[in-house]
Write a structure and sequence with these properties.
The chain contains 15 helices and 14 strands. By secondary structure, the chain is an alpha/beta fold. It is globular and about 60 Å long. The protein binds pyridoxal-5'-phosphate.
Amino acid sequence: MDYDQLFEAQLDALKKEGNYRVFADLERQRGAFPVARNRHGAGERQVTIWCSNDYLCMGQHPDVIDAMVRTVESCGAGAGGTRNISGTSHHHHLLERELADLHGKEAALLFTSGYVSNWAALGTLGSRLPNAVILSDSLNHASMIEGIRHSRAEKVIWKHNDVADLEKKLAAIDPSRPKIVAFESVYSMDGDIAPIREIVEVSEKYGAMTYLDEVHAVGLYGPRGGGVAEQEGLMDRITLIEGTLGKAYGVVGGYIAGSFALCDFIRSFASGFIFTTALPPAVAAAATASIRHLKTSDAERQMQRLRVRQLRAALDREGIPHLPNPSHIIPVMIKDPVKCKMISDILMERFGIYVQPINYPTVPKGTERLRFTPSPLHTEADIERLVSALSSLWSQCALARRAA
Ligand code: PLP
């Protein structure tokens, strides 16, 4: 059997639909974010990154880098084991305490990524709570979907952000069964925000626990960066808050926060927690420094919001259509995978602007887009350069404009 031929046949199909992914070779320049060095063929150029999830550029913050470097120097590179078998360091404890405090919860539990935390926590809740039902928003992230699938619990999908549909589905379930309502606060591709209060109220009414993914909100929303639930004063009513250390906090790792019993339960039963090497202590120390900084500093959030408003206004001025939403994510819809990649390639090659095309399976086919995430370190000149490049491409490719 020629296995490579089997692989290549599927890759060819992906290429024909325009959904084959090409990675840019980037080296971010510390001190010069959002600028990066891009190696291509035999050449090299400086590019401005416009699609980073290091939303606040904390990956180059001096406190974060100092903490990481100091901890590598004092503790070495890796954790040395799973959390259970010699891998738990003081830095993991400090970070878990910091996270519990961030969300006003009794406890928190670290994972190696946000993906793993969703997969492990939902997988464990769904499989261990007897006869559980998981009610999942239809646009939940792949990591939640995989966790639910892995749990083999009954899954009920409710219409995206539709509380009436959620209530109808909750009402149809035997009240004696454990129920988990799983949803996100900021949806990363459309940038819309869930009606958390209404979801919590209806979940409480039917005795369901709430599982909230705040991956695209932690660090960014709420007075201390606790997410949209903090901003809305709802953290104490959410059973489990899940987040990442890899986006606004600029490092890597994932976590859940909740009651002692809940975190101890996941710690004790989740294979995705038990059977993998712990995050390096230096990563934990860097994440702790980042969270601490964003608990007291609002400057990064304020500047990011200003840049988001400025980019939206400049796009409107040129009639470049973008999805309206209340978040920091600006999706410019192209709705064609080939055109989307072509525009992204030209932006990179001709203008030194890097924005990765977003295609299937990240978004449904026919909704391909460029997803812009302005940071506090983009300048007004960066915004003008971007919008003038987009405007010239809009003319060249005869793309529809919207009246300003
Ligand atoms: N949850 C959501 C909603 C996400 O968008 C992502 C990643 O983009 C994750 C979880 C996974 O987080 P991480 O990148 O830390 O694995």
